[in-house]
Amino acid sequence: MEIDLTPKLSKKSYGGDGGAYYSWSAEELPMLRAASIGAAKILLEKRGLALPSYSDSAKVAYVLQGTGTCGIVLPEATKEKVLTVKKGDAIALPFGVVTWWFNPNDAELVILFLGDTSKGHKAGHFTNFPITGINGIFTGFSTEFVGRAWDLTEDDSRDLVYGQVNSGIIKVKDGQAMPEPSPKDRDGMVLNCEEAPLDVDIKNGGCVVVLTTKNLPLVGQVGLGADLVRINGHAMCSPGFSCDSAFQVTYIVRGSGRVEIIGVEGKRVLETHVKGGYLFIVPRFFVVSKIADAEGMEWFSIITTPNPVFTHLAGKTSVWKAMSPEVLQASFDTTPELEKHFRSKRTSDEIFFPPSNSSQ
Predict the structure, then answer these.
(1) Alpha carbon of 144 to those of 106, 159, 165: distances in Å?
(2) pLDDT tens-digit map of 294-320
(3) Distance in Å from the first CA to the final CA of the chain
């Protein structure tokens, strides 16, 4: 049975004055279920607060837009970390982490979440557990249990449990104080992909920053790797595949371009045009390549292993460059002259190919 790989936009799940929660469903994007991956976004308006919650899935959060504040309570921690988050930040969120997100600014704050749902309640879907609000954990307990657990009177328990009549995302009242972030709390918790040293930088081609256990150790606990890739106008990303049985989940941050994915028996399983906001998934061992439109293209991806390894089929590090000329000649059933011409190409380019004059 073939799986539809068509890229999809997210849809609004819930929201109000403070903002909204958007998600991708496995019904519309079946590869989410097949890969056991969840994908969602939070958009917070000014004074918007995503109420404290935890999830059944380990995730990587990526700030797409804006600046705000994030609270993180790690398992068995006695004090939360309160940190400023800004565009380009990647945050690893292991199992058991309680988080809240707040936007004190006029501009919208938008955060993308990609994560592993293999241990979750529903493959391809994040199940979030809010602690407060009308559908929060507190609300589910009787006032007797709340009173016994926190040594409160029944009246105080009722006021505490039922005081918040909203759910998920709220708008904090003007004048109500919120925690101030601490610069030191960012240490070891966040990697800004727009400021980090580049792992690959090809003139007129593109650049990439890779998140691994080396630059963000918490990704080891999450079990996911990630990268931010930018390619210039009309540039191409070399055809390649993950050679360690990993899925690639790609969100187009901005720009647009064309994508082709090649699957089993050399079948082209996807040929499409994508732009900012679209999400798609590359199955294990399938080969993917992208060519940007005139304005270039940027994407953020997670890979379902913390230290991914890729094999490329073009460029100076491609598998073809490592192979014997005789094998290539026989494999392509071609002449020695054409094989030599083929091998002479892309001797200096790595994984991004700048546009030729004819492609501009």
Answers:
(1) 42, 13, 20
(2) 999 999 999 988 866 666 655 565 555
(3) 39
